[in-house]
Amino acid sequence: MDDALIVVDIQNDFCPGGVLAVPEGDSIIPKVNELLAAYSLSILTQDWHPAMHCSFASSKGLPPFSLDMGTRPPSVLWPDHCVAGSQGADFHPALQSWRARYIFRKGTRKELDSYSAFLENDGVTSTGLAGLLSSLGVDKVIVCGLATDYCVKATALDARRLGFEVVVVEDAIRGIGASPDDIENAQVQMREEGCVFAQSGDLMASYTISSISPSKGII
Asked: How many domains is the chain partitioned into structurally?
């Protein structure tokens, strides 16, 4: 085993109708479901924040999308989203989450956010995912999901820094694009760090679709 599929944050709050919706975020779900059916080892990441999380503007008494000047560099403060146990934190109902081998929850500490599935936003604290994948003999990760310019980018870049080969599924990601060049810049940055971009159909051609649901663990 040397490949693992990582599906980033396809949750209700990040899809149309959610409090922090990625435009057309749900449009990638059919492609993602095909990938989940094709890969025997897959991980779903899930933002799972406590109330008054440090990334929430409400925790600082500021309007959503303000900058937190207490971080370096200043970070965006978001609307309350993906609160642990809430409907917004649930996976989108169209996502075939039952196919995943593992569910990996991040951003669970009130004082520390995590865009990446591998490292917390301090750039030092490990989430444990790298160790899990290494113990399973994985050396290549296939990354898809939401959002291109935030959690997908952070996950792909950290995977490269930790020594994994990285393939980003170009037709199975969507970005926020708060500024006009954010999505394009994120893609350029990932390419510059050695991430390879591919289409889902090309990837699935190499794998046998399995109809067996693997055992699941939540981390």
From this structure: 1
In a domain, residue 73? The reply is: no
Domain range enclosing 97: 3-50+92-218
What is the reported pLDDT for 215?
A: 42
Cβ neighbours of 65 (radius 10 Å): 12
pLDDT tens, position by position, 131-151: 999 999 999 999 999 999 999
* Residue 1's pLDDT band (cuts 50, 70, 90): low
Q: Cite the active site residues.
A: 9, 106, 151
Looking up residue 103, the CATH number of its domain turns out to be 3.40.50.850
Q: Please check whether residue 46 is in contact with residue 11, taking contact to mean a CB–CB distance below 8 angstroms.
A: yes
User: In what side-by-side order are the strands of the sheet with 196-198?
Assistant: 196-198, 165-174, 140-146, 3-8, 42-47, 102-106, 217-218
**Residue 129: inside a domain, yes or no?**
yes
Within-domain flag for 59: no
Tell me the β-bridge partners of 7.
44, 144
- Torsion, Cα 184 117 172 47, to 10 degrees, reads -100
| pLDDT tens string 75-90 | 899 999 999 999 999 9
Q: How far apart are CA 48 and CA 9, in angstroms?
A: 10
- 74 occurs within a structural domain: no
Q: Are 164 and 2 in contact (CB under 8 A)?
A: no
The answer to whether 154 and 8 have CB atoms below 8 angstroms apart is no
154, 167, 152, 166: which is closest to 199 by C-alpha? 167
